[in-house]
Amino acid sequence: MRILLADDEPQIRRLYREMLEGNGYEVTVAGDGTEVMERIAEGDHDLMVLDLYMPKMDGFEVLEALQAEEQQVPVIVMTGHFPDYVVTERLRGLEVVEVLRKPVMISTLINVVNRVAEKR
């Protein structure tokens, strides 16, 4: 299973990438929304783990762009910046598998990714 991991924090990308790869997943990373769109155009991903608070294009804008392009990749959203009511409102109508609040425990992320992988 190929995962696109998008987060603007290099330490988070490194840590989550190592843990996901250690669990048998192939991981591509992106540090901002523009990079996410480039990675999506470059390859076929089975799942995206997407931080909402990123430079250039935030996660909400990425999700809107993916929907406009009719991309069908399941998305797990991570956020620690936006309040729940903002996340709920802005995600309404967008395809999201799960919303995780940062800091996200690695075991929680792995469990959600495994659950998505089992459904595919």
Main sheet specs:
5 strands, parallel
Strand order of the largest sheet: 2-1-3-4-5
By secondary-structure content and strand pairing, the structural class works out as alpha/beta
Order of helices and strands: EHEHEHEHEH
Residue fraction in strands: 15-25%
Give the % helix.
Answer: 40-55%
Level-2 CATH architecture: 3-Layer(aba) Sandwich
Q: What value does the Rg take, in angstroms?
A: 13 Å
**Oligomer state of the chains in this structure:** single chain
Contiguous low-pLDDT stretches (5 residues minimum) are none
Number of helices: 5
- In CATH, the homologous superfamily goes by the name Response regulator
What would you call the shape?
globular
Structure description:
There is one protein chain. It contains five helices and five strands; from the N terminus they run E-H-E-H-E-H-E-H-E-H. The protein has a single domain (2-119), classed as 3-Layer(aba) Sandwich (Rossmann fold). Helix 2 packs parallel to helix 3 (59-68). Helix content is 46%, strand content 20%. Strands 2-1-3-4-5 form a five-stranded parallel β-sheet, with helices on both faces. The chain is globular, with a radius of gyration of 13 Å. The N and C termini lie close together (9 Å). The mean pLDDT is 93. It is α/β, with parallel strands linked by helices and 120 residues long.
